[in-house]
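Narrative progress, year one. The postdoctoral researcher (J.K.) led the effort to move from monomer predictions toward full complexes, under supervision of the PI. The following entry was the first complex the group processed end to end, covering 964 residues in total.
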Amino acid sequence: MMDGMEDVLPSETNGTKSGRSDTVDLNDSTLQVDISDALSEREKVKFTVHTKTTLPDYAKPEFSVVRQHEEFIWLHDRFDENEDYAGYIIPPPPPRPDFDASREKLQKLGEGEGSMTKEEFSKMKQELEAEYLATFKKTVAMHEVFLTRLAQHTVFRNDHNFKVFLEYEQDLSVRTKNKKEKVEGLFKSFNKSTDEILLAATQKDVDDYFEREKTFLLEYHMAIKDATTKADKMTQAHKSVADSYIQLSSGLSQLGTIEGPRLEKFINKVADTFEKARKVEGRVSSDEDLKLSDTLRYYVRDGSAAKDLLYRRLRCLANYEQANKNLDRARAKNKDVHAAELAQQNACEKFEHISNKAKEELNDLKARRVTAFKKNLIELAELELKHAKAQAQLLKSCLQSLPEE
Amino acid sequence: MRLYLIVSASPSLCPGDNPQATHLPRAWAPLARPPPHGSRLTADLFSTNPGALKSPVSEQTTTPEDQRSPEDPLTPPPPAASLTPEPHNPGTPPDLFESVAEGPVVVQGGSPKLSSVPLDLPAGGNGGEGKQQPTFFPTPLQEVSLEEEGDEPDIFDTMSSPKLQLNQAEGDGGDEFIQITVSDPQKIGDGMSSYMAYKVTTKTNVSYFRKKHWSVMRRFSDFLGLHRKLVEKHLHSGRVIPPAPEKSAIGTTKIKLGSDKNADSGSLDFIERRRAALERYMNRTSTHPTLRADPDFREFVELDAELPRATQTSALSSAGVLRLLNRVGETVNKMTFKMDESDQWFEERTQQIESLDAQLRKLHASMERLVNYRRELALSTAAFAKATAVLSSVEEHSSLSRALHQLSESTERTQTIHHAQADADFYVLSENTKDYIQLISAVKDVFHERVKTFQTWQHAQITLAKKREAKAKAELAGRMDKVQQAQEEVTEWEGKVERSQEEFERISRAIKKEMEQFDVMRVKDFRDMVIKYLEDLMTSQQQIIKVWETFIPEAKAIS
């Protein structure tokens, strides 16, 4: 039965579980989707997608299924390929859960075990485990955001595939693309990008608004991509600084033992302070990552999706103009006029439809972006402030407590 | 007798800064246990007060405490009565100040990093042993006019915390002091024959120096030559000779071959490091009263002409090769000769020194890592700031764009803070620890000297036994002429045994005393260094707080 799924899967595998991810605040309670749990097994992550709904289409008001990352991608692709949705910005798919970096670090730590003391080793191990946990939480959050966006979207939520995704108890048997399909996929994207470039060069847009949008999006996309990479580097460096405090702290404690009673207390206090400071620095780094880098990253992808939308529209426009030409030619030859007329009408409708939708979507994107940035920037600043204050306080109390001679 | 206060950055010295007008001279007795506040020795040794030189204001407010430090003789005066009390005739403090005030302005150390510490010496007139050679130098010294250097911007302005300045409350510090700054690194000459010259500025009220305040130019090999001479003269008396900065072939060649205009940050860094290290070295050496009084040292700081080239410090000279061989021999000796240690104290201390050495090296390595990571952080933050600026210019929503621009500026400011903190990490923590490591190896050298004396003694004993045997044999054989000779040899070697035993015991005593002082000073220095570092760290955090506090309203203003 479905409700059995609601409970967390027992730990039959050696994975880590995340706690409940934060539920997103939804305005509309008719369809609420969240990821109530997640299990990490070796290579895969299994998400428990939990749905609560009052819509009549669904068999039950509340149910859960287990999904893997590939199934999310499958869902996204279904939306992407659907021509009906050509006028919409398709929410970007969540990135693949990537624990490689953590695993590598853990391995390196294991190799270097001999060269450090036991405490140092256990501390660094703890750090790495925390990092792993953080990555895990992040990937859960991203998958959840993807689903909630779909659920909130007035059109997408009614999509059949979406319903299947949410409801179907069995595995969706979405195999990852085999080689042939991967190559096909590659070809497709290659074609698409050349087409994009071609269109960009040849197709003149009738609407100024879209012209401007296109230029803006292109520039913006590049800038934000750059900012994201730099932000990532910065948070990484911050983390390294925090980690190096560990060695400093343990080195100092060892020094304390050697030095003997005169300096020992003093040194131990200092070593302790460094240890605490390290934790704060580590949190600074992860908060920066969460609030800053992730926001930037998300809007890189959203911007990418918007670019796709514009591309589709442009293609539509090209088709429309092509249809016009065909119609003219057909009229001139007086052959297949009706068919051509129909085609032209279709193309025209499609184009208009897309253009209208696109305008809406782009404005929506803008508003969303501004709000998201605002929220995250404020949170970032507040967190940075909090941590800096904590560290200053920590250092101050240490300095005060250090015994005078 | 009086306090000599230095206000490095201010253009004039204020007599008013001297709170203690008179000061009873203190007997420099062999009970020379220094006052607990090793004083600014610590600051001295670990250059913990980079900021002190920077701002005139902070300097002035801290000088009253700052500049006082009881002298901290690292050794008791040598038993040899070569020192005579010298009549001390200082003027009254105001006179002192006035004379100096007319003089040129004190120069800053070339960087914000280090401050040298004035060291008090006991007044000579109290039966202590100031070495006196008032007429040592025939030539009058010229005071070099010192330019005031601009303040470097850095966050350590407020760091000259009164906490670091030790009170002379106990009043057993002498009132003499000496402070040396090394500044103005200049490249003299061109190409491979060029070299770096540094201005060595000394401020002192020690009587056996001719002036109170002057400068000379010295080149790097001069410093090394000084160190070598001091080692030659004093190591066997059981003194710990502060080690001199190392030669670095790469750095030096880069400087030699590079032109002034192309001085990249790498070589500037190298020069700065070296200058700072030289300054610390000079101050450490001058702290040691015996070394300070050494004629070579005094010639080094006082002689206004170029010193004779210490050619033997060059790595490739014959003397250099000889020294290298000696070094090798000594190392082998150290490893092979296992001394029969009868003294528990030495046994313990040797072990402790060894483990201290190992642990410090490890600590130093992790400090260097910290410095590197923080420098990386500063760089990546700067890159991010630029990227954000670009983003803000592209962003079409105006208030978001403004906020992003603010973000870029805030990040830029954080970057500066990180960069300054990395410098603090380096100069306060890492370099001082490195110095400490080198000091430890100087201590090891001294211990080894003792081992050598022991060896000599043993050897003498063995030879004496042999000679006695020879004499006995000669007596048995009835060879009267040989007996006479053997007798002479026996007497000779008996004398040698006695002397070498004395020597051994003397050096053991001297080392013990020296180590006592060393320990106290070491502990003090370490504490001060760490405290200074923590304060710097705290200041960084406080500045970061300010940055973000200004940013928040901007972020909130996004409409």
